[in-house]
Request: fold
Amino acid sequence: MLLTIKYFGQIAEVTQKEEETLECSAKNISELLALLYSKYEGLKIKDFQVAQNQELVSESTEITGAEIALLPPFAGG
Amino acid sequence: MLLTIKYFGQIAEVTQKEEETLECSAKNISELLALLYSKYEGLKIKDFQVAQNQELVSESTEITGAEIALLPPFAGG
Amino acid sequence: MKDKKPKNVFRDGAISSDFIGNSIYKHQTKTSIGAHNIFLGQVRADDIDGKTVAAIEYTAYEDMANQKFHDIRESAFEKFDLTCMHIYHSLGTVKAGEICLFVFVSSPRRKVVFEALEYIVEAIKADVPVFGKEIFEDDTHQWKQNN
Amino acid sequence: MKDKKPKNVFRDGAISSDFIGNSIYKHQTKTSIGAHNIFLGQVRADDIDGKTVAAIEYTAYEDMANQKFHDIRESAFEKFDLTCMHIYHSLGTVKAGEICLFVFVSSPRRKVVFEALEYIVEAIKADVPVFGKEIFEDDTHQWKQNN
Reply:
């Protein structure tokens, strides 16, 4: 599946990019994260949540959507 | 004792004045009110609190101060 | 007896949005502040028995009222970690849609301002001798009463 | 799916006191309103390990953030009897002392605005994907995190 992955804040500092497109076979978020951890070693020690198509999801959530985002702690207001 | 009596809002509508000076022998607030009720019949049906020297007092409070005020319900804000 | 003399909280007529904006502006030099909370009381054009409120005419037992505002202020600073606090109340005529009460609190942290502002506004409504004559469009009136 | 499209809550840079004053002014035609409550978030010049915060640079996952602001808005209107509600949040650089969040609620009655404003501000802090880079005076930085 072709996925757009978005990175924000201190996560984007680790990946050195704000967005990328990946062709990947990960079935759920956990599998996708394993792939990203191997690509970006520094992600492992970072605190973040994952959104799929703009909704927060858990590691066991199946990948269905085209847009995944890695969101560091919120700091609004 | 020479007292200044202040009237506000709907109380001043009844007394037709905002202030008056009375020479009176009332010992406590209750006695003063009896005097004022006889002077201003319409006061009897009004809801108000009494302040002596800018502090709220009860009917049994002794009159010690020079300034008494009749305060209808508050409506600030 | 308090050693600090109460300030005059009253303003003649409505409190303008310019005055409020300017008051906010003046706080931008205070860089320890993280949160402001502002309460504004606005005169409602209430319908009462088919008549509409056009304005409220405010009067007050001014000396006692300023002392009460001062006491509320002192007690709020004691209870809450506030950086600043300002209260303004109208006297005289304030038309429907205009602002008659402006309470402004500031603190390093947000939890404090929510608690403090509600405390202050409730105390003003309950304890300060201010009186309001609701004037209808046909020039009759009734007396406002806080609940 | 919601039928109403989310509005854009974000403003470029700080929110000015003029903008806030003008927003208050616009509500003076709404004569069913009796109480306004306004929350302002201001950037603090915090001292952290001997360094002082000079500004916060805000970024956001904008589409998701606007959807979350929209959801908060809908849920606040459902829970509370509000006449109006406005939210504005900064993106980009906001210097210490400047305002980065402006939340404005209005209702016929005061009790409602206190509850509603706190609900909305807490929801914004917890649920909206906005990120803040605290920039120190020496140009180093750290990432802000809501508690």
